[in-house]
């Protein structure tokens, strides 16, 4: 073999490039796997086979004030800043999201239990009204459901369903990504404390 055999060097370069691509793909797969592990622990309240929905862990804390233009299912516009209730429960969902649909009865039950309290429920999809209205009618939900094309940064998350609780100053005092059971004793205790 000649020291200057171009086919030998081309083959060596092709092999090195292939190894580099395989290495990069491997690193990306490991990064995705690690992220999924992290999300799995962060979404610990997601339903598991036979386990059902669990109550979300309610932390204490505070964050940000916000305004947000919303449209109800009749096409009327409102703004989060105009909602008079002391506490606001915001849930982001979509018609195609099975975990969103699974948790909705427990949100509706919580809203029913707290109907005489100073709390507003905003169930928000970023889908068009033409998609949301017939879906909600088919489900028979009685929740106050809204649509919004733009989502303010404070309500953005790495998945849906995502739920945010705001206090009377419109600070986000609780955020949860993933489905949960909302009509539990711990939920009532948490909202009871906020409403005092």
Care to describe what's here?
By secondary structure, the protein is an alpha/beta fold. The protein contains 4 helices and 7 strands, in the order H-E-E-E-H-E-H-E-E-E-H. The chain has helices at residues 6-42, 98-113, 129-139, 185-195; strands at residues 69-72, 77-79, 87-93, 119-125, 145-147, 162-166, 172-177. A 7-stranded mixed beta sheet has the order 2-1-5-4-3-6-7, with helices on one face. Strand 6 (162-166) and strand 7 (172-177) form a beta hairpin. The chain is globular.
Features:
alpha/beta, 7 strands, 196 residues
Topology at a glance:
Layout: H1 6-42, E1 69-72, E2 77-79, E3 87-93, H2 98-113, E4 119-125, H3 129-139, E5 145-147, E6 162-166, E7 172-177, H4 185-195
Short description:
The radius of gyration is 24 Å and the shape is globular. It has helices at 6-42, 98-113, 129-139, 185-195; strands spanning 69-72, 77-79, 87-93, 119-125, 145-147, 162-166, 172-177.
Main sheet properties? 7 strands, mixed
Radius of gyration of CA atoms, rounded to a whole number: 24 Å
Number of helices: 4
The total count of strands amounts to 7
Task: Give the terminus-to-terminus CA distance.
Answer: 87 Å
Question: Portion of residues in helices?
Answer: 25-40%
Mean pLDDT figure: 81
Strand residues, percent: 15-25%
Give the overall silhouette. Answer: globular
| Backbone structural class | alpha/beta
- Poorly predicted runs: 37-50
């Amino acid at each position: 073999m000649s020291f200057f055999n171009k086919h030998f060097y081309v083959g060596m370069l092709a092999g090195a490039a292939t190894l580099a691509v395989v290495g990069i793909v491997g690193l990306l797969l490991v990064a995705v796997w690690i992220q999924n592990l992290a999300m799995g622990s962060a979404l610990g309240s997601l339903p598991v086979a036979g386990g059902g929905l669990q109550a979300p862990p309610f932390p204490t804390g505070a964050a940000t004030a916000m305004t947000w233009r919303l449209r109800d299912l009749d096409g009327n516009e409102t703004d989060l800043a105009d909602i008079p209730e002391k506490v606001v429960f915001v849930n982001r969902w979509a018609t195609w999201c099975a975990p969103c649909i699974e948790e909705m009865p427990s949100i509706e039950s919580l809203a029913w239990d707290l109907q005489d309290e100073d709390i507003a429920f905003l169930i928000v999809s970023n889908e068009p009204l033409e998609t949301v209205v017939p879906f909600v009618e088919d489900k028979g939900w009685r929740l106050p459901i809204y649509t919004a094309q733009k989502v303010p940064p404070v309500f953005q998350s790495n998945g849906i369903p995502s739920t945010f609780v705001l206090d009377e100053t419109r600070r986000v005092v609780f955020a949860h990504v993933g489905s949960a059971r909302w009509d539990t004793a711990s939920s009532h205790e948490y909202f009871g404390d906020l409403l005092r």
